[in-house]
Amino acid sequence: MAGNRPLWRWIGAGAAGLLAGLALPPWGCPPLLWLALVPVWALGPGPAALWGGAAVLVSHRWLLWLHPLDWVGVPLPLSLPLCLMLWASLGVVAAALVGGWRLLLQRLGPERFSSACLAAALWGLTEIVLAKGPLFWIGLGSAALPGDRALAGWAQWIGAGGLAALQLLLAWWLWRWLAAWAAQRSGVWRSAGAWLLVVVLLHAWGWRLLQSPRPAAASAGSLKLLVLQPAIPTREKFSWSQQQALLRRLAGAQLQAERQGADALVLPEGALSVGQSLPHAAQVEVLSGGFRDVDGALRSAVLRFEPGQLDPAQAIDKHRLVPLGEWIPGGRWLSWAGLSAVGGVSFGEPSRLLVRPAGAVGVAICYEIADGSALAAAARDGAGWLLASANLDPYPAQLQGQFAALAQLRAIETGRWLVSAANTGPSLLVDSTGAVRQRLSTGRAGTLSVQLQVRAGLTGYSRTGELPLLLLAAAAGTARQRSRVRQS
Question: Would you name the residues annotated as active-site residues?
């Protein structure tokens, strides 16, 4: 029986990784995640690597919906193998990251609280860095949504990275309790009671943070918007019939926004082609996803049209591009521009702040919604509300649920209302507490009339960013070093 023990370690780690992938958005079930994290603390680097790969393969399985890719020029026999390779590569990267993290923890001594705090802080900081890189990640920081908004309330002060560290530490405490229970040590049930009390207090305090009125989040007025969800299939977007359907829906939305007295009409990512003008010069501002030419380089952007104008007056370009879709390393010297129908998109500026005469807005295009620190910086620089513009077709409802959870998290972190305009969904309105106020049905063309509050002032996270995580890492590292000195 002892000879089978290593095998069971690997099986347990793989099963826990699968559960962790299911516990992440769109479900968002923190208690299941805490249980699934126990083997990461308890087992070695190898099983932890398997855990990381399994969790990411489950939570990012929507990548397989890229198939078929023949519509962008990839031969059909190569389409599915290519999608499988992309999906598997993401799992391999996740396995390497989690395995490396656990190897470092092994050297520090995972049983020590100081080591656990340092490791949790490093994990949280790594998620922040990954959110700025080329790959899209659903990390532990977003796991509280949409199922546990009370716990997510802490994001007002510690952000997504802090939420990731907090959940890791709860799982570490659970692991230490299970180890003590298995060894039949004294005080086990007192420890369990203390753990439960801490969990209850964290939820109570997080909910209070969401519900308590804050002077820093005082309303600076309201804004009435009309959101258009055109629901044009991406694989058919450039056909003549779909282009005509898009123009009809856009023209109708302009007239509807004008009749309703909306302050602005909002369109999703990629709604307009390069150099395309609006169909009507309606007396309403338009914020539309589209493309523009900047010194011969193509950029994906949110274009701002002033009332009564057919051509854009301002734009904010997409900074975080989709690898292999909009951008590939060395793409300038290769004939292949990527998997996107447009391909060859160039990077914009990192700032997510669009300064408008009616007030600044923080803009996230596509999976820039995963970068909470960039939107917090936009709020710090004066953005009174947030706009998420996306085209998630042909991906399934799973990715839309993850996008909605990230939108909720960004609203909580910044204390700003958020409007999402997406081609097939999710088109929704989220208030500053992370509650979804309104939402359009997925996959159906339609418009959504919303009224949001423009906010002034800053949350703790918007002010300090990752400083709490850095302080935790510094304090834990100092405590661990002092412990080593005493032992020597």
Answer: 269, 318, 366
